[in-house]
From TrEMBL:
Belongs to the Gfo/Idh/MocA family. InterPro entries: Gfo/Idh/MocA-like_OxRdtase_C, Gfo/Idh/MocA-like_OxRdtase_N, Gfo/Idh/MocA_Oxidoreductases, NAD(P)-bd_dom_sf. One of its GO terms (molecular function) is nucleotide binding. It comes from the Bacteria. Residues 140-406 form the Gfo/Idh/MocA-like oxidoreductase C-terminal domain. This is Gfo/Idh/MocA family oxidoreductase.
Amino acid sequence: MRQLTAIIVGAGARGRFVYGSYAKKYPEQFKIVAVAEPNEERRSLAATEHGLSNDRLFSSWEEVLSNHRIADIAVISTQDRMHYEPTLKALALGYDVLLEKPMSPFPEEVIAMARASQTYNRLLTVSHVLRYTPFWSKIKETIASGEIGRIVSIQLSENVGYYHMAHSFVRGNWNKAEETSPMILQKSCHDMDILSWLIDRRCLNVNSYGSLLHFRPENAPSGSTYRCTDGCAVERECPYSARRIYEEDSSHEWSRFITNELTPAGIEQALLEGPFGRCVYRCDNNVVDHQVVNMEFEGGTTASFTMSGFTHDISRTVQIMGTLGEIRGYMEKNEIKLYPFGKEVVEVPLAVEEGGHGGGDEGLVREFLKEVRRENSGGGQGLTSAEASVQSHLMAFAAERSRLEGGHSVSITSINDQSICSVGS
């Protein structure tokens, strides 16, 4: 197995904790040879963790992609609105690219990136990690076996989790649609992708409703303050308390995303000075905290999707109804049950993998590396190629337009005059 080299463009949470961690865990497969990151502290951490010299540390994507190719792979894990230009440049230089989702908040950029991958004959894989999990792979396999017949309808729920909602979409980096992406695209393009993959037909029409219902100034409890650290009278009772989520988080599951100084003093300083100490009712957020989407696919198959920030856990549940049977699944419990009509229920055996997104994070990188090796020998485009991702992005764009227009039905082809069918033409 030839070790592949990579540059990381954006060394934040995903760049460091997913791709950087994979390189440290499997050095025989994957080596990071350069990092582009504007934050000096993150660059320093990358240098230490991957043994990089100063001439392999860059403060911008323009610098690391300025001249010739210096690695096999470019991992683009910048913020949503900073994907387009470095991706096109990396493809033009001859890199195979692993791109964080969503591809872009703009339909024309999504399609242009997919076309560039074809033009330069390079891999452009999007991090739709759910396809790489044992859970969703087994569901896809069960559907393909014909045991439930033809899919009639799917119900999919994404339970964001109240603490994840508060961290990422109220206080955090993805709280304003105009700076990143709408919630349905940023968070739930995974789910649009899964529905597209399972049904395996073109989505035709979408309608959607949703709003920012709760995390608003008028809902702030009496006695609350601008920061949870400002002597808030209700902080101890508030489920969204920053002290509860970060200071009392002994595992550092969430505090590691707000500071690199994982000590009581370091976390306290982050809450006193940074955005994550703010009251959830006094932030500058505007993305929705709940949304529903209904979809019609070719052949009459329908799907409904619910995203909610008001759940006790972070989980996904699915119900797939076919002409001969039904599948019900609970991803976080690794539980899949098959109900063939007129027969006994079957517990579908499922391998369990460790790691983020139910093993999908490692699965994504592992399969991408395999594709790069195959591609260099004339292989295919991979499970989550840009071409495959275009439809799910267009579904999310249609859902957001429908939501903003009061739930009116929006056709996929109206989002852009070049639909998924024309991407490969």
